[in-house]
Specification:
This protein has 98 residues and is an alpha+beta fold. It has one domain (4-92): Alpha-Beta Plaits, CATH 3.30.70.100. 32% of the residues lie in helices and 33% in strands. The protein has two helices and four strands, in the order E-H-E-E-H-E. The longest helix has 20 residues, at 62-81. It is globular, with a radius of gyration of 14 Å. 14% of the residues are buried.
Length: 98
């Protein structure tokens, strides 16, 4: 795969959210990331202290990445957590899989 794009999102979670609640929310959201054109992989992230969450997305289509992140992911995070996520786009020229 050439021209892969990695997108990393981060956002603050409300105080008092437990790891179990976060895990349940991730499982609920996961089907919405299946069969998205251009999306190769999505990983859900949660900090050890349950204060920050986010995701790592691997894309093979940069336009699709920007559109999906701006039109679907950012609004979903704003609606569910009432915060603006940080969304960073990176070129991924080399990927090593074991």
């Amino acid at each position: 795969m050439d021209n892969l794009i990695t997108v990393i999102t981060r956002f603050q979670l409300p105080a008092g959210v437990t790891a179990e609640q976060i895990r349940a929310a991730f499982h609920e959201a996961a089907p919405g990331f299946r069969n998205v054109p251009g999306l190769v992989r999505k990983q859900f992230l949660c900090s050890k202290d349950c204060r920050t969450a986010g995701g790592v997305y691997l894309w093979n289509d940069e336009r699709a990445a920007h559109a999906f992140m701006n039109e679907r992911v950012a609004p979903m995070i704003r609606e569910k957590f009432h915060v603006d996520p940080a969304i960073d786009f990176y070129d991924s020229p080399v990927i090593v899989e074991n």
